[in-house]
Write a structure and sequence with these properties.
Layout: E1 7-13, H1 20-30, E2 34-38, H2 44-51, E3 61-64, H3 67-72, E4 77-80, H4 87-93, E5 98-103, H5 106-114, E6 119-122, H6 139-146, E7 153-156, H7 162-170, E8 175-178, H8 185-192
Parallel strand pairs: 1-2, 1-8, 2-3, 3-4, 4-5, 5-6, 6-7, 7-8
Helix pairs in contact: 1-8
Amino acid sequence: MNAIPAGVWCVFSDAAPAQLPALGVAALRAGASAMTLRRPIRGDGAAVQAWRAPELAGAWRAVHARADLAAASGSQAVIAGVRSLPVAALRRAFPRLLVGASVHDEVEAAAAVSDGAHFLLFGPIWSTPEKHGVLLPRGIPALSRVCAVGVPVIAIGGILKSEQLLAARAAGAHACAVLRAASDPAALAKLVSA
């Protein structure tokens, strides 16, 4: 199986399939080490075709919640969440894929690792519009504790500045995932160079 990349991951959320190849190429040029697709809009077939576009060949890719789309698009991983099959079921049904889990506290992290998750997305670390009114920021101390679970942890949520990325790495994060900077190549390049 492919190694889980360190560095900066770009999360493309609610993106139209026609935009994905250009967004992905721009992210790769800015130095992103991985890309994830969350809640693609329009049809599944269009999302699969866009996510497996020749321009993205060789890029490390994951799909949130949809192992069928991850497998069909040639992605390396699926990320389990509240709208997907659980980690253990995904590992059994899709043995070719690495299986990550989106977790929000230490209990969820420990359960995901116990169920066989290869990696975790943990957050939100800082405040982010995506989680306003849903989840409070978890902070660096919680990230440090989750990073002790024994699998790579990708910090996510509100990472906009180099200082945040450096703090997450110092806490033990294997990588950091960004949403807002994912579609801003200049901001992404600044983060990647941190």
